[in-house]
Amino acid sequence: MSTHPELRLARFAAAALAVGFGFGGLVGIIDSDQPAAHRLVAVALLGALVALHLRTCVRPADGSRPAAWRAAIAIQALLTGVGMIWFADTWYGNSGFLAAALLLLIRPPRLAWTGFGLVVVVQFAAALPVRPTVGEALYLAVGHTAFVGIALYAVARLADLVTDLHETRLALAATEVARQRLAFGRELNDRVGASMRRLIRHGEAILARPDTPLDLGQALTMARAALNDARSVAHGHRDQEVVPRHPAADLGTVGVAAVGALAVVLMIVPTAVRWAARVGLSGGEVVLLAAALTAFVACYLRGCLPLRDGARPRWWPAVLFAAAVLAVAPLAVFPFTVWHVAYFLPGLTLVLLRGPVRWLVSVPLICLDAVLFWWDANLGDPTVLGLAYEAVWSGERALLVFALANMAGLTARLVTARAELARAAAVHERLRFARDLHDLFGFGLSVLVLKNELALRLAGRDAGRARAELAEGIGVARQSLAELESVAVGYQAMTVDTEARTARTVLTDAGIEVSGDVVPGPLDARTDTVLAIVLREGVTNLLRHSAARRCTLEVERTATEVRLRIVNDGVGHVGETLPGMGLESLRGRVGALGGRLTAQADGDRFRLVASVPLEPALVGRDADGVDPVARVESGDRRREVVAHRTHAEE
After folding, report:
1. Quick one: CA dihedral 278, 391, 399, 331, positive or negative?
2. Quick one: CATH architecture of 496-573+582-613?
């Protein structure tokens, strides 16, 4: 994960901001009136604070807390406290390192934000004795300590969020698959399972009264209803629109926007309010300043907080132009000492401009103080160190805005991609449900209908034989009910030998003469299962769609492959019960093992041949590429299908 460019950007921004804020603190210490020895101590304390922050808060790719993080926080708290006491007139921004560390390392969030607020309050109290007004002390606590803490927290936490989104894309897809399996298991139980249980109870009641006349019409109706229910469930589940639920992802995008907006407001507003309070404006000027400041912040947020797809705002040139006008026009009323939001324009230009123009415009704006020095703005120290400080001050804020906007845009794109991946996985699972219901369960239901039809035809002339057919039908119903489990969780191991014996019995009962040998030899479980499914589906289609009198079932093994062949002489409508899911489904299963399947009519004969190499091309996954996520197993003695809830669903 650490190789992703967006994570490298986040880690670079976090480190660069920490160094930039540290440089600002260094300049404040150098410019202070403290004795040289005291300033050396302050520089050492600040260096230790920055080093601890880089060690503990420039996050690893997994966002985990480093070893000995508690000790690191304790040391940061000690260094910050000493700085507040000994260097109260210059230490205010450095307290933000501790505030950020508390937000990044303390759990739960409520406790972390409480600690953050406590640091801001303590900084306010420490600034009161050395500042002329409460407003000045409040500015230092909010405009420096709170801003530095939020800025460092935002970039580091956004890197965590990007990592989380990357790593949970597959987890979300798996959760959606589990959710689909749970829903499918419930639907199978409520509709098909319920029909099967009613049919079994009805048949058992008939068999329990051997001396009463057979009334098999209702049993046949129930069998056909169960088959229709299965088809309906398969069609409905396959075609239903999938809307994945991912509340954590939506919360992530909202959280990113909230943190970014808070950082921007703390970056712009306190500075403007502080300088306005120093001058003493009239009532009208205060209203005008508030309106201009609100409009500028609104333009800034509109330009720097991208749309959900991460693109620039539709009218971004107008937004950038409006921000530039607002940065200049109020200077007709206010002196530059009051209205100097032009320092924040590089953040907007870095976000909204592209190519060389971005740097041609942004770099001069970052170095604006060197130009404004000739305007006699008197906002800072005109020395080389002072001008360097102003450039770093403006540049680090531009970098913060650029990182926040890029992280927010990336987060929005990742959320969309993650939702699409979950949607695709859920749709794929729905298709697998429908296909397996057709391939595996449809055979048993077809046999069930056949048995009930035979019993009904025999009821008038051979009651004993009719009861035997009904009993066999009930047995098939019980087996089919048990197979609901394998359909919901994914098909389980089947064997060609078992399916061939069942197919011979069913075809013989239907009056079809069966010939051919089944000699597959030892097969791996996947090949055996797929060929068994092909055999079952082939016999099911034969019973449903042909008027066959003779059928050949053959399975033979060569040195390189195993071949299944089903031939019948009753070509009718060579079709599929569920469009696109019968023969195409079988081709997909066989093809996943590197084999091939052909189905063709030749005169009055229909031939289905499946060949699979003895070393399948696909090992370790099913033909869908869908691994089991949620188990589905029989619940109580009524054979109700119950899908186990995953932790994500609870």
Report:
1. positive
2. 2-Layer Sandwich (3.30)
